[in-house]
UniProtKB/TrEMBL annotation:
Gene Ontology MF, one: aminopeptidase activity
Keyword Endoplasmic reticulum part of the UniProt annotation: no
Family: Belongs to the peptidase S58 family.
SUPFAM superfamilies tied to this protein: DmpA/ArgJ-like (SSF56266)
UniProt cross-references to InterPro entries, sorted A to Z: ArgJ-like_dom_sf, Peptidase_S58_DmpA
Stored CDD domains: DmpA (cd02253)
Name of the protein in question: D-aminopeptidase
Hydrolase is among the record's keywords: yes
Keywords: Aminopeptidase, Hydrolase, Protease
Annotated PANTHER family: BLR5678 PROTEIN, D-AMINOPEPTIDASE
Length: 354
């Protein structure tokens, strides 16, 4: 599996974690189910934030909507209450309801009182439209697929044309799932911030690599109608307000690559911290939390920006060829990157002969 660093391109300056993945944050796992049959190229990606019962022991969470052309579910309550109580599922636009049902059933299996003697549960599902490379009207994603993605969650993260990323496109190239991480130190303690993206955005021809090159996919430069979902995970001691501010900086990582958040693009960032858990049934009237000083938060801002940028590039370089609905395909960024040195060498020889 190719990643952007294999091509001597290093986004940013901060050091990555050992996997350079969202799963560098302790306890975070990722699973995929990929559906590829005929004109169907879609799937489900599950981010399991922590082991155990998330409904009873929630995570502090926040949302940043950069451009709201999207059909996700659960984000309003996350923004209001600042808590996450289910795994996060990523899928195609028409799979949101099905995945939400799967998350509800998953939570009820752990807590049969949900919706009866206990409160209802807030399933979180985010989406991108894979209708160019997949027959989205087939509505192929099932609840069983969603539950299988959760069960498949592990520390090693497959990237590219897998899971929800199977049919995604980025800047005219094949897109998909990508991930990256950054180390952040506070008071001598090492922390991690990781990003995972479902990358399906950007106008063809607008991509700008960190080294300044502008790859041309040579496909029609249509108006932007895609989306990107960024999931940020960290173990930093932050409250919801700080986490919301960190999520906002993921937008800088998206913009660095040439995006301008087009009218038809749904650009959403969902973040959570494994610090400062929120019990469903608190035993005290007052809860104590850890909170980093605001005058140190620039480290987290930079980490969110850099990890998001690299995750997008990893999604593109890890992507494999997909032939979809009506024979539609998109070129691979890795082909452009691999061919370029040969082209440059040929040009240099020609210039020397002159």
């Amino acid at each position: 599996m190719a990643r952007i660093r294999h091509f001597a391109i290093t986004p940013g300056t901060m050091p990555p974690g050992p996997r350079n993945a969202i799963t560098d944050v302790p306890g975070v796992q990722v699973g995929h189910v990929t559906l590829s049959s005929g004109e169907v190229n879609t799937g489900v990606t599950a981010i399991v934030p922590q082991p155990g019962d998330l409904f009873q022991n929630k995570l502090t969470a926040a949302v940043e909507v950069i451009n709201g052309f999207g059909k996700s579910t659960g984000l309003v309550q996350v923004a209001e209450l600042g808590s996450l109580e289910t795994p996060i599922l990523l899928t195609n636009t028409f799979g949101v309801g099905t995945c939400a049902n799967a998350l509800i059933r998953h939570a009820i299996a752990q807590n049969p009182a949900i919706g009866r003697s206990a409160s209802t549960v807030n399933p979180v599902v985010c989406e991108c439209n894979d209708g160019v490379l997949s027959d989205i009207q087939a509505m192929a994603v099932t609840e069983a697929d969603a539950l299988q993605a959760i069960e498949a969650a592990q520390s090693e993260v497959a990237e590219g044309s897998v899971g929800a990323g199977r049919g995604m496109i980025t800047f005219g190239f094949k897109g998909g799932i990508g991930t990256a991480s950054r180390r952040v130190s506070l008071q001598g303690r090492k922390h991690m911030l990781g990003a995972l993206v479902l990358s399906n955005f950007g106008k063809a021809g607008d991509l700008v690599l960190p080294d300044g090159r502008r790859p041309d996919p040579r496909v029609p430069r249509e108006a932007e109608k895609g989306s990107i979902i960024v999931v940020l995970a960290t173990d930093l001691p932050v409250d919801q307000r700080q986490l919301s501010r960190i999520c906002r900086r993921a937008g800088a990582g998206i913009a660095r690559l040439g995006a301008y958040y087009g009218h038809g693009s749904g650009d959403i960032v969902l973040g959570f911290t494994t610090c400062n858990r929120i019990p469903q049934q608190p035993e005290t009237d007052v809860q104590t939390i850890e909170r980093m000083s605001d005058n140190r938060i620039d480290r987290a801002f930079r980490a969110a920006c850099e990890a998001t940028e690299e995750a997008i590039l990893n999604a593109m370089t890890a992507a494999t060829a997909v032939q979809g609905r009506g024979g539609a395909t998109r070129p691979l960024l890795v082909d452009w990157l691999r061919e370029l040195p040969d082209k440059q060498a040929s040009t240099a020889k020609f210039e020397n002969k002159k």
